[in-house]
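Schema walk-through. Below, the input block comes first and the output block second. Nothing else is stored per chain. Lengths vary across the set, and this one has 497 residues.
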Amino acid sequence: MPHKKKSFTFNGIKKSWIIMRQGREKAPFASLTRNVLTVPGMPGGYLQSTDIEPLIINQPIAFFASDDEHALQLKDELAAWLVTDEPAPLQFDDEPGRTYYAVVQNTLEDFEKFVELRQGTIQFLCLDPFAYGPVYQSEFENDAVTAVNEGTAEAFPIIEATAKESVTSFMVTKGEQDYFMVGRPFDIDLDVIEQYPEVARWNMDTLTGWSHVTEGFFLDDEVTGGTVSGSNIEVVGSGGSFTPVSYGSPRSGWYGPAVRTSLPQAVGDFSITLGCQANNNGNGIGKVMAIFLDENDDIVASIGLINARMGTQNVRVLARMNDGQNIVRRRVMDYPGDTGPESTVFSRRSLNIRLRREGNKFEAYTWQVREDGTPHARHGETIIDDTPEFQRPIHQVLLFFARYENYPVFPMYIHGLRVHENNTLLMDESMIPYIAHEGDQIRIDSKNEIVSINGEPATHLKDFGSNYFTLSPGVNHLFVFPENSFETVVKWQERFK
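--- output ---
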């Protein structure tokens, strides 16, 4: 039987023309640096901490090229494949079931030429010095589970709990000392209150209950508003999203279609959350806004996305308060995102925007949710403003899609909208708020140290004394409290030193 050629996979891709040569250089485990404290007059020292250095893997490779031009083409293909901005998964055929996360740090020009054979060494840098095994998942039975970590290093669990009833807390324990808790346990001597009772929720899967705004209606805010124009708004997608059908005939300023609806009740202090998206690829100007009106159709608050610069992808998150006469306005957030290692560029990505009013305090917060449910790209801003006009109750919500004059516009969507009343100022130490209700999901990510409820960051609910614990190598016993209140699973990925 012919021997099967072994190779490696990087970033999900394997090149059939790559020859993985013998001689891989990789330490049995990453280098350790022991930080030792010595005390004059005392023998030896005390171990303060241990630093684990990045892991370096040197892998010799070779490939055949018919001539120098062909070799150059293959080098370009190598560069396009191997040079990444972020660590990518790396698997070697001769290390089955193990995944490293690496970047290439040497040049790809150092290949020696032997007739048609080109050979050299690729140096992979693993900033995370551990190898990872498969992902395991176990369901809690009777609020208990035994998680067996067969790796040689501690594993970071992800715990997902779906509430079966209204709860004031969620706690998961490991052994007798490690625990993680959000909220406060129920106490019969204390009153339970809805801190943020839901007033209205729209999943954008139907236009029932929404009415198209009359042509020519003017939203008097040069940043978030404009003139209502265009034919209508439609529902698209399997899960439901609002998007404009057309914007109408070109005119000066901002213009486009809008729909509106009334809230079931007037809301004073509020917490509003908008899910939206702007698919700008640099060739348009546009904005998508949720605008909240008082009983006289005057603007109280606005949240949404805007790109006002042609030729850029500079989609910004906006949150503003308005006195209703467009005389006194206050920016709560005007955030363009970040282009750092964890990119928060908002173009072509769904994100959430939340605006809360609590007396004279206004808080704007934005975040995205990865496919695995992890919140990221989180950013918040808070202002204090005593302007009386900013305290007006909200009665209506208007959804506005707009383009600017005759400039091209890009696709925009609204995926969901929730309005909650904010009862924070009514609470005192004798009250315990609910943190979740039936169907709500609490997610604890120990590796990234993030806790979320329904995808929304909820780190502020974390109990001060609790910790994002790990799963030790071997057997780990986990328990959930309060009993019979959650359907819970734990997921973990084994790590190897």
